[in-house]
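Can anyone check this?
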Amino acid sequence: MDEFARIRHWTDGRQSPSLLASQGVVLGIGDDAAVVGAPPSARGELEWLLAVDTMVETVHFNDATMAEEDVGWKALAANVSDIAAMGGTPRHALVSISVPQAWGPERVRRLYDGLYACAAHYGVAVIGGDTTSSPLHVVVAVTVTGTVAAGAAIRRAGARPGDAVFVTGAAGMAAAGLHYLLAAAAAGGTAPGAQVRPVPLAAAEAAGTAALVQAHRRPAPSVRAAALLAARGTVTSLNDVSDGLASEAWEIAEASGIVLALRESRLPRSGSLTAYAHRCGEDPLSWILYGGEDYVLLGTIAAEDADAAKAELEAAGLPMYIIGAAEEGAAAVELIRDRGADRGTDNGRGSASSHRREPLAKRGYNHFGG
């Protein structure tokens, strides 16, 4: 099967003409470049958002943790989350993949199965890309476009003193899921020369870690939450949690020139994460703050609108948690740890007698360890 036959095998007939038309696609896969126009549903003047993310075998995934379909889903989901983090709507994807001979066309087709499943879930039109051979490992690079009303993109740099800090879901679950998968793979062992297969979801369900495993393998970007929050016009900064909650909080603090004070008692904790952490002797707070790859949103919102925004999202079946406040001061992130009293305070400060404030380390996932 030559290059062009493989491309057809992986992409032909995957998306309906109506889906492509809904995203303004004039010409999709099959020519030297795609042609797109403004989506028919878009109103008013638009600005385009562009994001790219790359996944490398042995760096971002391996056979012991993710099936091929999971790799495809996650490669697209990471980019969809970046568009949501700007308050935008994801529209199109370009997919470049480098494949070693050992993978073969059917394994790559399963990767595309997962990618197209994610595209269908979020209404993204896959319109082109590139295919090359690779000497050893699979590399998947996805570029996603999105749209936002002109001047309405939400940046990291807009947080103001007095704003409330929020997240749209529990952090740390993906890191806990990865910990479980690696531990299970190490315990299981593999015969020499045999292909390692990831832990089946049924086994994770029996271990009480299915939600954690799914968080790692099939993250769910907060696209609907981003749209509702952006429409309110009161969100002042936004970031997605890809490298860890602490790392993303620092990015907002530095871009905005403020202090983010996070309340430990208000950080949402998954029951399965807490149970698994206790079972294996790990600190769940470490995963929550420094784990990464959760793809929930972290942001700031005008304090007077925080409760109403939370109510709107919850009415739509979407979580939103108020976890702290933005304060004046040189860029910093602090964690407010409760001593057992005054745990109902929402302002992120608390009294000196009931709380202690600690600087939160500026760390999370970093490819180059800087």
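Reply from J.R.: I decoded it. Residues 3-149 form a domain with the 60s Ribosomal Protein L30; Chain: A; fold (CATH 3.30.1330.10).
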